[in-house]
Amino acid sequence: MFKTKFKNFFLTVLLFFIPIFITFLFLNFILIKISTQNIFPRPLAASLPNTLLTFYPDTYDKKNLKKFTAVLGNSVAQGNGDAYLQGVDNYSISHHLHDIKKKNYLIFGRAGLNSIASVTNLIKIHKLSNQSILTPDLNKPNSVIFFLYEGIDLVWNHSLYINNAKENETVEDFTLKIINRDSNPFFLEKLYNSFPILPFVGAFFEDFLKLFNEIFESKNLKDSISSIFDRIKKLFGFYIVLGDKEKNDLTWVNSLKDHKNIKNIRPIQGASETLNEEQMLIGLQIFYESIKQVKFWSKTNNVYIVYISSPISIYDWDEPIIYERQNLPSKFTKKDIKSITNDENKIKNIFLRNEVKKFSAKNEIIFIDPTDSLINEGKNKVLHGPLDWGHLNNEGYEIVSEFISKKIH
Fold first, then answer.
1. What is the rounded CA–CA span in Å between residue 227 and residue 246?
2. Hey, is 298 helix, strand or coil?
3. Are 286 and 298 spatial neighbours (Cβ–Cβ below 8 Å)?
4. What pLDDT, on the 0 to 100 scale, is given for residue 247?
5. Are 60 and 138 in contact, with CB atoms under 8 Å apart?
6. Cβ contact 40:53 at 8 Å
């Protein structure tokens, strides 16, 4: 009698979960198939797991992906900026290069990555893509474009080394150690690679929790309704700042000399303005070792460094120029707000560009520096913002793409 009841109970549970599991697999399959730029809504793209995020942009021929260029870096490589926020189809440099050169470009750069992490992301996704029957198999890239953004890359590189390297550990040993350690996918990454629906749904729940928290903390019904409609607007592609509302705490006084109507700009980034020369050299060494490792791993001689100058370096600013600082204290005073002059920033910009140029020549790497073109164009048009002053806008990306296209194979 007990055995019969247990058997019936087991069958009931099985019949209950089988349809759920089949539905889960079906939705997982559908997510993978539709997670491309021409189908998937832009506002939801950030919810895609790491591997699918590489295949999201329309920067490659989906039917012929045997040869491709790997694009490394952080948010500049990824294509962040006004074009992305406004739903423009060709929002990144890789999009424009794909149109110009008719070749495949896969973006492995992500917002917030230091140079080492960008390399490990390439190696990791290469492994993951070949472990799943649901994503394209990848060869190693036949060429590499590594973006170096002077505004924050070296700051992150320097911080990574100073805070994590062992005593007397060289930059070379440290870089190789981190790449070997972090380029192997861990369990959750393998799980998410096969079942991307899991992190996708998780991102939705996280966003809903933030919404409920905002509603709970809102002072009145108007604020609650505003939070709900902001998310609806974002879902339909409108530029909306959620949660962390933009504030005027740092006194937005930056303005351009050549563009009198461009003023009250938020604190911006310069040529690694928070670092001294010794610290910049450490940040550069991390970048150099990272690019050496990706060149060794990929077995390609077609490696390019693209130097992207910061907004302070591109224009002539009214002084003093208030620059963006990472990790400001929650209660800061005027002494925490730092500024720089055009000449001080220019010295750092020229120093960094010359250093990278010397390294590139010594290591047979092609150095591409569109800074002068951006400076000349920036006298007549604004190449950043107006929504996101941390990145080039679509016109800025087009200028850089045209410049790069003349230098690469």
1. 15
2. helix
3. no
4. 45
5. no
6. no
Please check whether residue 211 is in contact with residue 228, taking contact to mean a CB–CB distance below 8 angstroms. yes
Ranges of the chain with pLDDT below 70:
1-17, 20-21, 24, 134, 211, 228-229, 231-252, 326-336
The CA-to-CA distance between both ends of the chain, in Å, stands at 76
How many Cβ atoms sit within 10 Å of the Cβ of residue 219? 7
Indicate the pTM of the whole model.
Answer: 0.88
- pLDDT, one tens digit per residue, over 85-111 is 888 999 999 999 999 999 999 999 999
3-state secondary structure of 186: coil
C-alpha–C-alpha distance, residues 350 and 272, integer Å: 12
The closest alpha carbon to 319, from 343, 337, 335, belongs to 343
Per-residue confidence (pLDDT) for residue 243, from 0 to 100: 45
Collapsed DSSP state (helix, strand, coil) of residue 235: helix
- Tracing tokens 């492995």 back to the chain, one arrives at 108
Angle between the N-to-C axes of helices 153-164 and 171-182, in degrees from 0 to 180, rounded to the nearest 10: 90
In what helix (H) or strand (E) does residue 18 lie, and over which residues does it extend? helix 2-34
DSSP label at 43? G
| 292: CB partners within 8 A, 6+ apart | 363
Chain-centre distance for alpha carbon 399: 20
